């Protein structure tokens, strides 16, 4: 029997069994307040791209394709990993155009406000997930690690409250992740979302594979030892928020005074006051010595860094040459290289990254022969936005490096 015939037969039986189980489960839930079941928790369907598995609703962005049912029989995406349960699983991606994939469904019974629930799911990353870059239209391998976020809401795709999230999934083998949910509302829907590593300074291409979700089971809220009773024998990667690993280690960001079952806090961008732009903003590609005065700021376009790093990307070679030519041709100018981030990161992280990136540009100029007395650098973090941090375009404008004229060397010095 061929693979698709085998899957079709299994799906028919699983659908019948699933309907019966769901009816029985709903009766048990209504009678006892027991486990909340998901429909098609192992994401069984015909392997195919751009269509979510049955019983799951696409929550993607307009104009973008929905998630995929994997593994890929045509080997289009080169995703070949066997399922951990059944025959298929869900594949979701994040993209370099600041869009990402998500699915949702209605729960068999509401989660109740003030109660605690336990939930587990198997996650992995495919070493190959070939598609097209949304920014270059070139073939790209979506392999940068991403995380899973789980929300509760009152309708399909309604992300009212972040119930939990994992750290980025950087392993190719299936591992079970265990969550402790403590909803603040009587949520009737669940949303599962692929998302970037945070803080996200630039969007990128990545994938996550999802399989074999459990029921959402009520547990005592004060049971701190419960998390050690569920999980695989192999080590589970340490998740964030209230996604509890097998190891039972302290969660990232948890202080000694913070209990392990605190409600997850959803960080929102801190909107700093926008710094007014200069009436005449100078551009490194066209600026002339006669345009300069003390305090002038020169804009640098097309200067790119590796994601969350201070390593300058190769596609920045042209603008680096323009910066060097400017410094060489304006030999009396003393400048400050200023690094800036968007508002989606913590203060310390933003300050360090912006300083490191400014230093990378300064080091480049000094390595090319510009005297170090003429080049200084400073990281401003997210304190001087020039646009809103609430939109991708605004964040891209804020994520920048600028040159500020500090003064001019006097003759003979």
List the helices and strands and how they pair.
Elements lengths: L2 H30 L24 E2 L9 E3 L18 E6 L7 E5 L9 E9 L5 E3 L6 E3 L2 E2 L1 E7 L7 E5 L9 E7 L7 E7 L10 E6 L5 E3 L23 E2 L37 E2 L13 E3 L17 H13 L3 E8 L6 H21 L7 E5 L12 H7 L1 E9 L5
Parallel strand pairs: 8-13, 16-17, 18-19
Antiparallel strand pairs: 1-4, 2-3, 3-13, 4-12, 5-11, 5-13, 5-14, 6-7, 9-10, 9-12, 11-15, 17-20, 18-20
Key structural traits:
Jelly Rolls; 413 residues; single chain; 8-stranded mixed beta sheet; alpha+beta; 60s Ribosomal Protein L30, Chain: A
Walk me through this protein's architecture.
The strands form 4 sheets. Strands 2, 3, 5, 8, 11, 13, 14 and 15 form an 8-stranded mixed sheet that branches. The chain has a 5-stranded antiparallel sheet with strand order 1-4-12-9-10, with no helix packed on it. Strands 16-17-20-18-19 form a 5-stranded mixed sheet. It folds into 2 domains: 3-244, Sandwich (Jelly Rolls); 282-408, 2-Layer Sandwich (60s Ribosomal Protein L30, Chain: A). The relative contact order is 0.11. It is elongated, with a radius of gyration of 26 Å. Strand 18, helix 3 (347-367) and strand 19 form a beta-alpha-beta unit. The protein has helices spanning 3-32, 317-329, 347-367, 392-398, and strands spanning 57-58, 68-70, 89-94, 102-106, 116-124, 130-132, 139-141, 144-145, 147-153, 161-165, 175-181, 189-195, 206-211, 217-219, 243-244, 282-283, 297-299, 333-340, 375-379, 400-408. With 413 residues, the chain is of the alpha+beta class. Mean pLDDT is 81; it is low at 15-32, 224-242 and 244-270.
């Amino acid at each position: 029997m061929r693979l698709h015939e085998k899957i079709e037969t299994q799906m028919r039986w699983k659908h019948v069994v699933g309907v019966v189980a769901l009816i029985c489960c709903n009766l048990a839930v209504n009678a006892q307040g027991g486990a909340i079941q998901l429909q098609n928790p192992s994401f069984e369907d015909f392997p195919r791209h751009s269509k979510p598995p049955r019983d799951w609703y696409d929550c993607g962005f307009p104009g973008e394709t929905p998630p995929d049912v994997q593994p890929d029989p045509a080997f289009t995406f080169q995703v070949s990993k066997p399922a951990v349960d059944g025959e298929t699983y869900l594949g979701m991606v994040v993209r370099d155009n600041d869009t990402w994939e998500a699915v949702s469904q209605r729960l068999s019974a509401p989660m109740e406000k003030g109660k605690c629930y336990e939930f587990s799911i198997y996650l992995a990353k495919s070493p190959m997930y070939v598609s097209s870059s949304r920014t270059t239209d070139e073939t790209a391998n979506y392999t940068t690690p991403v995380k899973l976020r789980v929300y509760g809401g009152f309708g399909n795709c309604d992300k009212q409250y972040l119930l939990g999230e994992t750290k980025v999934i950087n392993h190719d083998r299936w591992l079970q992740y265990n969550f402790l949910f403590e909803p603040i509302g009587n949520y009737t829907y669940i949303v599962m979302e692929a998302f970037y590593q945070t803080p996200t300074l630039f969007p990128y291409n990545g994938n996550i594979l999802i399989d074999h979700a459990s029921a959402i089971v009520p547990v005592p809220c004060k049971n701190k030892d419960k998390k050690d009773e569920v999980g695989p024998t192999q080590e589970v990667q340490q998740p964030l928020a209230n996604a509890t690993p097998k190891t039972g280690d302290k969660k990232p960001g948890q202080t000694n005074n913070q209990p392990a079952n605190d409600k997850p806090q959803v960080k929102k961008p801190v909107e700093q006051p926008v710094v007014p732009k200069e009436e005449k903003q100078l551009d490194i590609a066209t600026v002339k010595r006669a345009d300069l005065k003390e305090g002038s700021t020169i804009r640098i376009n097309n200067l790119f860094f590796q994601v969350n790093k201070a390593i300058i990307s190769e596609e920045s070679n042209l603008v680096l040459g323009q910066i060097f030519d400017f410094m060489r041709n304006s030999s009396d100018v003393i400048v400050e290289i200023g690094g800036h981030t968007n508002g989606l990161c913590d203060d310390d992280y933003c300050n360090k990254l912006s300083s490191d990136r400014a230093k990378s540009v300064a080091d480049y100029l000094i390595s090319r022969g510009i005297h170090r007395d003429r080049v200084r650098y400073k990281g401003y973090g997210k304190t001087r936005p020039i646009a809103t941090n609430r939109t991708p375009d605004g964040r891209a404008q804020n994520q920048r490096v600028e040159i500020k004229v500090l003064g001019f060397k006097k003759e003979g010095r």
